[in-house]
Amino acid sequence: MSKRDYYEVLGVDKNASDKDIKKGFKRMAMKHHPDRNPDDKVAEGKFKEANEAYEVLSDAQKKAAYDQYGHAGVDGSAGAGGFGGGGAAFSDVFGDMFGDIFGGGGGHSSRQRGADLRYTMELDLEQAVRGVNKEIRIPTQVECKTCDGSGAKPGTSAKSCGTCNGVGQVRMQQGFFSVQQTCPQCHGKGKVISDPCRSCHGGGRVQEYKTLSVKIPSGVDTGDRIRLTGEGEVGANGGPAGDLYVQVSVRQHAIFERDGKHLYCEVPIAFTDAALGGEIDVPTLDGRVKLKIPEGAQSGKMFRLRGKGVTQVRGGGQGDLMCKIAIETPVNLSKQQKDLLREFQETMDEGKHKHSPKKSSWFEGVKSFFEDM
Known about the structure:
The protein has nine helices and 15 strands.
């Protein structure tokens, strides 16, 4: 049976770069891998076919011979579907492939990214609305100065791991193929420490506190996060540092409640102001403003002060301040005040429903309800 074209097997064209050839093999090998296709002879055959194609095309000398003479130029040099003779390039991609399948991280680097940190910052409503610069002090892992991050006691050094010979990876045979895994002895570092540093106990890192200045933009709200790149824990073995996430939490305000870009507040007023109308002072985040109360205003009526709300951090225009009036019943009245109110009530009774339309209609409804029973 004639062999298929190696470029066709890997799904790449004849002008493909080494990188594209490697990607093509990785894609086909993962698709037809026996572990993903148990008891599937067709998939097993395509897996071996892809292996054979990559063994030739990843080797510059074999690839040149194949490009010039076809299969005849490499007959006997390819593994006929086996796993031999692939060279370093094949080992690298094979390790990468198993890393993807089994989560083994098929590379040889022991550098590890540092952990991300989270800090909850409490803000007053005014600070959240206007923005603020704040300093925070956070615990973090930094490189040990005693051993310069090596983890070994000063004057000594880490030794090459005898299990993996300093590679950080070991190969485990599983059936007809091998799997590359992190070395269980050195945990991928490639070195072991026999005499650890007393300051970091061999970890190469110690905990310290650092002070950072954080710029909080105007308009943030509870739940917003600010990312400080590289301000997390330092990475192991020279790896990159993690990030710091500042989580915003806005304290409850004594006057205002916030809902997105709008602010809400309840404004108590005397019943005389509600009855006669007038102007009252109401607070905003920018100072006091005058609010005009119309004659005969009822408790619960909402007034909108445009542009006195919040400009959100993500934009969308400035919100409004919604003022809900609450008519306050007077307390601790003197005898004179009570007499005046009784006199006032008598004049109110003369007008009946004229002065209290809602009260009159409500009693009419109650009366009708009992008559229908």
